[in-house]
Each structure stands twice: as C-alpha cells, then as structure tokens.
Amino acid sequence: MIVTLLFAIFIVLMVIGVPVGVALGLAGTVAIALANQDVPWFGLLAVPQNFYAGLAKYPLLAIPMFVLVGSIFDRSGVAKRLVNFAISIVGRGPGMLPLVSIMVAMFLGGISGSGPACAAAVGAVMIAAMSRAGYPKPYSASVVAAGAATDILIPPSVAFIIYSVLVPEASVPALFAAGMVPGILAGLALIVPAVWLARRHGMGKLEAHLPRPPFWASLREASWGLAAPVLILGGMRMGWFTPTEAAVVAVFYGLFVGMCIHRTIGVRDLFPILREAAELSAVIMLVVTLAGIFAWSLSTLSVIDPITHAIVNSGLGEYGVLALLIVLLMTVGMFLDGISIFLIFVPLLLPIANAYGWDPVWFGVVLTLKVALGQFTPPLAVNLMVSCRIAQVPMESTVRYVVWLLAGMFVVLLAVLAFPQLALWLPHRLGY
C-alpha cells in the first residue's frame, strides 16, 4: 500500500504541475513517514540527512562549473565563429547549413556538456541564418534541438557525472571516453536525415547565393574555441586535472577568451552570466538532492529487490528486458528531463543490470542515449523547447521533421546495444 501510494503521490503531483524535484521529495517524505506509523517523526529524521547526502558528493561540483562554461561561451561569440569556420569547410548549398548546425552542436558538446545550453548557443546563431537561406523555422528548430542532444554523449557530460555519482563503479573518465564514439555516430546519424529532408523538400534555395567565409580568416577567429575541448579533455587524459578541476579550468579559459581575446564580455556582463549559471545549477542540484529522498524511500520500503526479481524471472530474456527498458525510458523521456530520469530509474535498473552482468559503463551510455532521444521528443523535450522559443514556432510544427531525426539516432542506440564495444573500446584502450 505504501509503495503504491509513493508512486501515486508522485504521479498526481506531476500531473497538477508541481516541479519534478518537489514531487520526488514530497512523495518520498510521505512514504518514509507512513513506513514508521508508530513513531512517524522518527523516520522523518532521515529526510534532512538524505537531502544533504544527495548533494555532498565531490563529482557534483563539476556541474555548476560546466553550466557556467556554457553560459560564458554562449556570450563570448564562440558559436558564431565556429559556424563561420564550419561553413568555410563544407561550403554553401542545400542541406549544408543543417549539417553545420549539427557539427557545431557536437563540437560545443566538448565544452559545455549541456544540451539546453548548446541549443541556446547554436540556435541563437543558426536559426536566423537558416531562415535567411530559405529553411522553414520548424525544421531549423528541429535540427538544432537534435544536434544539441549529442552534447550529453560527447564529453564533458553533465548526465555522465550524475550517473557516476549514482553508480560509483563507472568512473567519470571512463564514461567520458565511452561516450565519444556513440556521440560522434549519433551526430553523423542526424546529418543523414537532416540533409535528406532539406533536399527532398527543396529547402535552402537561397543558401548558395550567400557569401562563403574565407577559410584562413575563419580558422584564425575560431582557433580559441577549437582549443577549448583539447584543453579540457587533453588535460584530463594527461592527468593534469580531474573532471571537476577541468571544469574550473574551462571557466577561466572561457573568461580569458571572452574578455581578452574576442572582447565580447565586459566586467558588467559577469554578474548576468554568473546569475544565469547559478539559477540553472540550483535547479539541477535541487532535483538531485530531493531525488535522493525518493531513492532512499525506495530502498527503505524494499521496493527494488522485488521489482528486479520479477523482471529477471519474467521469461523475457536479456534482449526482451532491454527492449522493455527502451520502450519504458523513451516513453518516460517524453515527459521528464534526463537528470530526473537518471535519479528515479537508475536505482531501480542497476540491480537488473547487475543480474544480467551488463557492464556499468556500457549501461550508462545506453541510458544516456535514451535520454538524448528524449531531449528532442515532444511533448516535453527540453532542447526542443529552447530551439522553438528562439524560432518562435509551436512545438507541434516540428513533429514532421523530428520523427526522421529520432529514427537516425535510434539506429545508433540499436548499434550500441548490439555491439557494446562501440562504447567500451575507447575506455579499454585508454586503460579505464
């Protein structure tokens, strides 16, 4: 009864519009109190303890720093310079601007690690440019949102940091390395339907008449942005700093580029940048801490073991269970953001992964791929919300384009499921 009430309270609160973090915390608190009916207040003593325990984890320090990096590089004009450099390489023509959008989004994934932040940075530059070239705004918003979804796969990744906190067996460096190949494949898989749709529907007819930036000049302008992921990932690989320290280094590097090199950030801009990053980081951290209460209530009520036993002994087999998880998480991903999905479902799914002997690093990449799909799957797609707001179009207008992009990334998910070495080869080669 208490378990049923736990999920019922959570679902009802979500339906009436309560923020997901608050819904998780309230549902978990009520369940903990009811589990100790003789002395309800005794169980409630665990609530503040678990609230703090959910936050007091060293890897989580990297999250506000990477969020701040995204804000700094958004304001510094790095995205615009990367776009010009990419156009100078691929040239002009139908389907080339969508290709550039996805390429730049993938590259920015090596800087910020946040899909919505990338969608904002790329969308601010590319949606207007694509509109001038003759691409429909719903199509442009779809391409930008899908390209930004690769950011949680290509390191550094906020999602991988959250997963590592929940699954200590999977280290952050191993997850970063494991996400590289699937992230690149996901970007390439998005380019195919994006270019095909543009050429099939005759989009971008004006693009060929727009000027092409000179290669060497655009390379010089983009060089500081191109060096950022080399500094972040190379420094971690060389052992100069940990992922958390790499985020701090990236902040100071971004400030140096924005204030001293491009001079697009002034002293007066620092406070708005810090405020924006602090607000977004606070939301993420609150969800993390309140979800810790929910997860502890699941453990206290002994919910996880019966669910694991029922699924493992259901007769579906390993691949049947994987198919079930895909359907479940993709459905949930249409309504919840990626961080919430990890915090709610990883404690439930990890025993199932252990029962089948799945590698925790590979399992983390698979879950993150599913979350990436959810980031641009209507009706509640965080990346798509950002890009549609920039394009000033309703989300419903993007569905006819989004389905093709979803199909492209879904093929990569199936490939990683069928061939785990796509995710595990690089971390094994690097010794993680």
Automatic annotation (TrEMBL):
Alphabetical UniProt keywords: Cell inner membrane, Cell membrane, Membrane, Transmembrane, Transmembrane helix, Transport
Superkingdom classification of source: Bacteria
Segments crossing the lipid bilayer: 7-35, 55-73, 85-108, 114-131, 143-166, 172-198, 246-265, 277-299, 319-349, 361-381, 401-426
TRAP C4-dicarboxylate transport system permease DctM subunit domain boundaries: 7-422
Subcellular location as annotated: Cell inner membrane
Record-linked Pfam families: DctM
Chief location: membrane
Topological relation to the membrane, as annotated: Multi-pass membrane protein
Similarity comment: family membership: Belongs to the TRAP transporter large permease family.
Function: Part of the tripartite ATP-independent periplasmic (TRAP) transport system.
Subunit structure: The complex comprises the extracytoplasmic solute receptor protein and the two transmembrane proteins.
Record protein name field: TRAP transporter large permease protein
Organism: Bordetella genomosp. 1
